[in-house]
Amino acid sequence: MEWNPETLQFLSQCFLNTLSPLPEPRRRAEAALAEASERSNYGLAVLQLVAEPSVDEQIRHAAAVNFKNHLKARWAPSPPKEPNVPSLTPISNAEKELIKSLIVSLMLKLSPKIQSQLSEALAVIGKHDFPLQWPTLLPELVANLVSLTQANDYVSVNGVLATINSLFKKFRYQFKTNELLVDLKECLDKFAKPLLELFKRTVNVIDQAVGSGAADAATLKLYVESQRLCCRIFYSLNFQELPEFFEDHMDEWMIEFKKYLTVKYPVLEDSGNDGLAVVDGLRAAVCENIGLYMEKEEELFQKYLSGFVEAVWSLLVVSSASSSRERLTVTAIKFLTTVSTSVHHALFERDDILEQICQSIVIPNVMLRDEDEELFEMNYIEFIRKDMEGSDLDTRRRIACELLKGIAMHYKVKVTEKVSLQIKNCLALFAQNPEANWKYKDCAIYLVVSLATKKAGGSTVSTDLIDVENFFGSVIVPELQSRDVNAFPMLKAGALKFFTMFRNQLPKDVAMALLPDVVRFLAAESNVVHSYAASCIEKLLLVKDEGTRPRYTATDISPFLLVLMSNLFSALEKPESEENQYIMKCIMRVLGVAEISRDVASACITGLTNVLNRVCPNPKNPIFNHYLFESVAVLIRRACEGDPTLISAFEGSLFPSLQMILANDVSEFFPYAFQLLSQLVELNRPPVPQHYVQIFEILLLPESWKKSANVPALVRLLQAFLRKAPHELNQQGRLSNVLGIFNTLISSPSTDEQGFYVLNTVIENLGYDVISPFVGHIWVSLFNRLQHGRTVKFMKNLVIFMSLFLVKHGLQNLVVSMNAVQKDVFHTIVEQFWVPNLKLITGSVELKLTSVASTKLICESSTLLDSKVRGKMLDSIVTLLSRPEEERLSEEPDVPDFGETVGYNATFVHLYNAGKKEEDPLKEVNDPKQYLVASMANHASSSPGMYPQLIRENLEAANQAALLQLCSSYNLSIV
């Protein structure tokens, strides 16, 4: 695309139309730009439009956004996520160099709004090219910083610093590698000194402006923001390890850091708007920097420590009282927490200091504020994410408790004593006036829950602050037994959370007496309350006694099961809870435990299909949808296995929904739909009803198999049909279609295992007379993969397949069919692949199958295989049967074929409750060890003297001893 007046006019008009409120011109403009973006130099042309002063600012801003997104997609494009989707054309190297030569100077000339977009675009380039492939960038940015600071243009200074901050962020988040350290050294060499010089110059500018009284809020705000960005860059450059330059100049940094924590800037802080937030942003950045040095360079930092602790402490006492200063409060408390767990913990030893921490820092930060109540009411998902799911580590409430936990590492008795007293005080204040002081009770509950410690590897929690049963009875039970489920909802939520957390410690009779009350709370109007009630029930049903025995059973919940299910489905109809994942998870859990009568099954399948029909047009919440399908799967499994007459009723309810998913191409639900269909097919008795045969036809179409995420579910469904409808399979060329699917799957390392599943099911369920015309083609496909792309996984699957073939259709058919493809290939395959890979087999069914087949091979192949191969085979069988898996498996994991796996993002999601029962093709063999020695003893009796020499020459000493032990165990001998 050439830059000329016509290009300028075309792009200007397109970007203008993308801003149109009318959909049609907007769509046409977007399509035209998408087409133009495939042409060379498109990005360069858009950048030149952005720089064109004659074009309207709004159009240039839209172009800047498009330019940034163009670079994101094409600077280093990823392969498409799905097959048959064309790749994006990457930007040519020549165009890249031109863009890199222009972008910095253009960025600095433009308005702040456009500048921020180009800064992001520059960071996109930097992510891939900086610093080694763009060595001129940092010197150019440094030169601009020098001239801009001399001109006192801090708007542009901050633009450049924001760009450098984005470029350097990778040093915080990437693992330490040699490559990263090389990049870091390059940045330190070129920017550590200029950063300090700029920081000190801005220190002087601020001091002069404040000292002379000439500083206005707007100008001072730019200076303070510049220092904040310098602090963030400092954090990035010091994150991996302390560089020598920063160690040499530590005093210069630390003196100013302390000043920013102690000095006030009334002109800015009292100016209203966001003045205080800007200063607090700088203070928070300083707290993060000193926290980093405290963690990484404690010894060097020690001389500054007490001064910083005092400064942070004083700042916290003031900031904790203000709800608008959360970021500063959190970073400051984090710093004190780091100190409390270090060797300098004695700074917190004194009783008066602990008292002040509790009263001036912890309680003010744990106490609910207006914004907490607003979040509770307006965004229940975010509230629960923070409150119950532990993502609140950066909130005032949680971090204040983390400080107490840190101090308790060394002063547990003192902390317990102080906090227990605070809890009693809070509860006493609540008792004086429950209506007005309910937040004090919430504070007490939160302290107990947040300071409880979880036992490693389990769900049991403990606390020294209270006696759990007494606290539960006096503080929690009154809330749970309250008749009004909508009164004081935040207290109700806290009570339910306490019940959930301490569920293991509460006696069963105490919990059972309150379960009907928890069921009542499912009807609460508050989304948080009915979510917490559902979560409480769901977690109670997971409690186990003595490690494995469920504490709560179907008998326990049967008296109120109908009310429970009714309330759960009603909760899904409440505003904003239509896709409430906690409710749906509870439904799944209850259905997995309860005794499901016909009435319950009927009501539940109706309720679940109604929900499914509602979410199908626009699947939004993947977690909710997963639990929805798990609920359907567990209902099918438990109801239909118990009462097969329900199958047709379930089909009647579910089929329209499943057909809608397939007909409307709801691709997110395809894997789920196929797994549910598999379940239903497997539950039917032959002959399979006609409506399933139509699905079978869809299943055989090549288009159905193009999306990788569908493959495991389609294979599962195909296996179900092969088992239940083998005769229909052998009609109208369907077997040929099935083997075509196998052929496609087997050719790729990412799907070959699924191909073997299909093939094994065919071999297991069809007679040899049916499959014999196709066996030659099967061997050709397998030998091709063996020759051109074998992996350990493939070879193990090949051994399993050959074993199944042998036990189902006999050694003769196996040998003849293989040698028909290539002369004497059977001997080669057994010697080079079967024997060495047999010892790597895992899984009880697979182990039995392969060991029995290999035993048959030894006993039936004396004319086919020489004694050495048969001896090595026996050695592998004994290894397989006598040694634990961890001793046998020493192979390196397969390296994936990058051509097959790059860009594969869509994933198959397995439905636990729709899992198929593992088929055992050798039900008649109970013990493969006994089968081995009995078969060999029997064969040896007809050919005495053959085996002792074979064993002596080919079996390892340990395996000879193991085989002797097996013979002794079963009172048999191999002569």
Automatic annotation (TrEMBL):
PROSITE patterns (UniProt xref): IMPORTIN_B_NT (PS50166)
Cellular localization per UniProt: Cytoplasm; Nucleus
Biological process per Gene Ontology, one example term: protein export from nucleus
GO molecular function: nuclear export signal receptor activity; small GTPase binding
Keyword Nucleus: yes
Alphabetized UniProt keyword annotations: Cytoplasm, Nucleus, Protein transport, Transport
Pfam families in the cross-refs: CAS_CSE1, Cse1, IBN_N
GO cellular component labels: cytosol; nuclear envelope
Domain Importin N-terminal: 29-109
SMART domains assigned: IBN_N
Family of this protein: Belongs to the XPO2/CSE1 family.
Protein name as annotated: Exportin-2-like
Native organism taxonomy: Eukaryota, Viridiplantae, Streptophyta, Embryophyta, Tracheophyta
This protein's encoding gene: LOC107771071
